[in-house]
Write a structure and sequence with these properties.
Elements (H helix, E strand, L loop, with lengths): L13 E12 L2 E7 L14 E6 L17 H7 L7 E6 L2 E3 L4 E7 L5 H8 L5 E8 L10 E6 L4 H9 L7 E7 L14 E7 L10 H9 L7 E8 H15 L6 E7 L8
Parallel strand pairs: 8-9, 8-11, 9-10, 11-12
Antiparallel strand pairs: 1-2, 1-7, 2-6, 3-4, 3-7, 5-6
Bound molecules: flavin-adenine dinucleotide.
Length: about 270
């Protein structure tokens, strides 16, 4: 049985500053967060996730919770809204512990709290992180891997592929908003990446195009480990398809609803 989440034994609230911002493609920007407090982050690799704390518009300072356990959430909710930060889940795309730096990649959409902050943030502004562990946990017996995600899962998939062993065999299904968000990816020779965009999609609800592609795909034989993330209906529908139509045992699937269409993340 694969444990759903692997959490670090010790973790701390970490306050950093924004060192750089880079525009990657029309739909993606990267922020480099840095500072000596990063020494407190245990870099786990894979799809390591953090809670990212950032100020609301108009706030001049970042107020961080102090509890280094799940009590942080109550602390945040008890703060008056005038000082309460926003909190969103993000993936560590790259960590450079020797330089006290991590990169986070943001799928920008509209004027949401996260997208607006990424557009207005300046070098020197503060942001905080709290380690939430990893869910990518392939069993040794898996003969190949299936990785499926929408744009919010792209940073995690790219991080997984960056660190993949040269022997990895994988089918990777990725959906992004537009063709212009498709990137060149360096990966082991046994990895096939299938890109999809919503440019001409009849159903432009995020996740629908890649879900249809996975449903009709010819898959390799042998035991698979599947990792699926993105809009909540994408994650649950791919899992249901793998279990019901392809006979994949549930424990061989890691799946996560990263966001829910029409619903704002709490915090
Ligand atoms: C474990 C985990 C790791 C994640 N890693 C990343 C990451 O590395 N990079 C990343 O960009 N996202 C990542 N996400 C997803 C991200 O946390 C959500 O998309 C989050 O809701 C974004 O916050 P927001 O302020 O933009 O929008 P919210 O305030 O949460 O939502 C506002 C509105 O926008 C909609 N919405 C939210 N996200 C999107 C989207 N991507 N496209 C279109 N509409 C959307 C909501 O349904 C809502 O209607 C991750 C989520 C999880 C759970």
């Amino acid at each position: 049985m694969i444990p759903k989440v692997s959490l670090p034994k010790a973790r701390k609230m970490i306050t950093l500053e924004v060192r750089r911002r880079e525009s990657l493609t029309p739909g993606f920007a990267s922020l480099t967060l840095a500072g000596p407090a990063l020494q407190d982050l245990v870099v786990a690799g894979g799809d390591q996730t953090v809670r990212l704390f950032f100020p609301r518009e108009g706030q001049t300072a970042l107020r961080m919770p102090t509890a280094s356990n799940e009590a942080w959430m109550a602390q945040v909710l008890l703060m008056p809204k005038s000082v309460r930060p926003y909190v969103r889940n993000m993936t560590i795309r790259r960590a450079r512990p020797a330089e006290d730096e991590v990169d986070i990649e943001f799928a920008l959409h509209g004027d949401s709290p996260m997208s607006s902050w990424v557009r207005r943030v300046r070098p020197g502004d503060r942001a905080g992180i709290f380690d939430m562990g990893t869910t990518y946990r392939p069993p040794e017996q898996a003969q190949w891997q299936l990785l499926v995600g929408d744009e919010t899962a792209l940073p995690a998939v790219l991080a997984i592929l960056d660190q993949a062993p040269p022997s990895l065999t994988a089918e990777v299904y990725l959906e992004v908003a537009t063709r212009a968000d498709v990137r060149d990816v360096v990966s082991p020779p046994g990895v096939r990446i299938h890109w999809f965009s919503r440019d001409d999609a009849a159903d432009d609800r995020p996740g629908a195009v890649v879900l249809a592609a996975v449903r009709r795909a010819a898959m390799p034989p042998g035991r698979v480990y599947a990792w699926v993330a993105g809009e909540s209906r994408l994650a649950t529908s791919v899992r249901r398809h793998l279990v019901d139509d392809r006979g994949v045992p549930k424990p061989d699937i890691s799946f996560a609803g990263y966001w829910r269409h029409g619903w704002s993340a709490p915090g």
